[in-house]
Amino acid sequence: MSIDTAKGILGDATVAELEAGLRGTVVRPDDAEYDRARAVWNAAHDKHPALIVRCAGTADVIRAVEFARSQDLLVAVRGGSHSIAGFSTCDDGIVIDLSPMKGAIVDPVRRRVVAQTGMTWGDLDHETQAFGLAVTGGLVSSTGIAGFTLGGGVGWLVRRHGLASDNVTAAEVVTADGRVVRADQDENPELFWALRGGGGNFGVVTSLEYQLHPVGPQVLGGLIIYPLEQARQVVTGWRELTGNMPDELTTLINFTTAPPLPFLPPEVHGTRIAVLVGMYAGDPAAGEAAVAPLRTLGTPIVDLMGPMPYTGMQTLLDPLWTAGAHNYFTSAFIEPSDAALDAVLRHHLTTPSPSSELHLHQLGGAFARVPAEATAFSQRDSSVLCNVIARSPDPTDFDAQIAWARGAREEIARHGRGTTYVNFTGDAAEDKVRAAYPGAVHERLVRVKDTFDPTNLFRLNQNIRPSKAA
Ligand SMILES: Cc1cc2nc3c(=O)[nH]c(=O)nc-3n(C[C@H](O)[C@H](O)[C@H](O)COP(=O)(O)OP(=O)(O)OC[C@H]3O[C@@H](n4cnc5c(N)ncnc54)[C@H](O)[C@@H]3O)c2cc1C
User: Fold this and answer.
1) CA distance 280 to 288
2) Residue 73: what pLDDT?
3) 433-455 CB burial, b ≥16 within 10 A, e <16
4) Are 123 and 102 in contact, with CB atoms under 8 Å apart?
5) Whose C-alpha in 51, 174, 179, 212 is 20 to 30 A from the C-alpha of 62?
6) Which residue, by CA, sits nearest to atom 15 of ligand 1?
7) Confidence (pLDDT) at 6
8) In this predicted structure, what is the pLDDT of residue 404?
9) Residue with CA nearest ligand 1 atom 17
10) What is the pLDDT of residue 1?
11) Does 470 score more than 60 pLDDT?
């Protein structure tokens, strides 16, 4: 059967020839597994690619890139498929699916890991924790390491060890012309700079090498839940404490609606709450003293902060973030002034669905000590990252929910420099890309794009347009 693409028709023989050159497989629209293979985490993006190439290794990626270029196909690159903006799928183009590529080699002596980019954080934590090591990973274990790291990567170790991208020591990249290049401090240093925050603009990254750190296996972590009436005193008290917290402790406040979970009293179910979530990445006994003031910011409905395995903390939130719902995220780096917190609290009162919420991520520590020019993720001087989330199992009225999130973000962003975080951005619009790469950072990214992808083959991302396409 021939396949329609945006640019013409792909004949059977052409696709068969592609497949014959792979160790992996090709999924076509008439294959039984097509619907499963095309699904991404965010159900808001229901696309029908012409082909899904499931790559078994770098050689398959080279082949897929060359095929896409020769057939003039729109290219989507997929690792963990968590892109909020839906960049890891497309209509009538090719999906380069790296999810079968899950190899990792840990060097416990040098404390390094080389990881293939189909891994999720659940996969990588499993491998590194076998040696008592870890690198900053996502708050939800099904998130892919690649998209997460290329955009920055904020997790429970961010204040202790920086972003995931701050810990990348090298990358292997298949470029738009099908070459395989290494990027590190010495080889292709500008590409290395761009990959750490600049997203999937510069090629298909087939492996990432990370610096690892001793973490766990036990940490102190969990959540403390406060009622709406105490939300203001909790968030202002939290703000005062964040100035003096040790780097080992990373926290966030989630303004949300209480789900019907058994550890919550029934009368709380469905009410608005403020949830303080945090982890102390050090000796759990020392962590007790660090988290003690968080327990008395008000009178908790429930206090579930305690010693647990690091892998338990990394999967703690998984049940709340299953695939298949409609999701939109939008974000702003801010300073938590009284006016900023007023805005957050006001929008908490108008969340359009029980699973829509506002998160305040605490930054600072090791994150802030990385010089702004060291990586393409340059926004090191804000103390808080606010993520506004519209999430609903039901597509009805989802546009109105997105409008709520955008409105909230616009107001909250006034309490910062208007900048945003690519990984928490459901939009592809040019102004959001500019907001993620302020000042000279955008121009520097364009120069790297001009070198490695001058025709914009990789454009399904927060796109840095090459200068000839501008
Ligand atoms: C439930 C959930 C929890 C999250 N938690 C966090 C969090 O704690 N902290 C945080 O910082 N972010 C978080 N995010 C945001 C997350 O970092 C981004 O959505 C990220 O893009 C996901 O990466 P992925 O590999 O799973 O996604 P994919 O959808 O597979 O990829 C996203 C994009 O990244 C690029 N890309 C992916 N792999 C490659 C590759 N190998 N080479 C080149 N480009 C590539 C492509 O442009 C692709 O479209 C979360 C998202 C979700 C949905």
Assistant:
1) 9
2) 96
3) bbbbbbeebbebbbebbeebbee
4) yes
5) 212
6) 423
7) 67
8) 97
9) 148
10) 64
11) no
d(CA 35, CA 29): 8
Average pLDDT over all residues of the chain: 96
Ligand 1 neighbours by CB, cut-off 6 Å: 41, 77-84, 87-88, 98, 117, 138-140, 143-144, 146-148, 150-155, 199-200, 204-205, 321, 423, 460-461
In ligand 1, which atom is closest to the CA atom of 164?
Answer: 11
Helices 284-295, 231-242: inter-axial angle, 10-degree rounding: 140
The model's pTM: 0.97
pLDDT in tens, 85-126: 999 999 999 999 999 999 999 999 999 999 999 999 999 999
Nearest CA to ligand 1 atom 36: 147
Mean pLDDT within 207-211 = 98
Overall size of the chain counted in residues: 470
Pocket test for ligand 1, best of 45, 82, 202 (most atoms within 8 A of CB): 82
What average pLDDT score do residues 423-428 get? 92
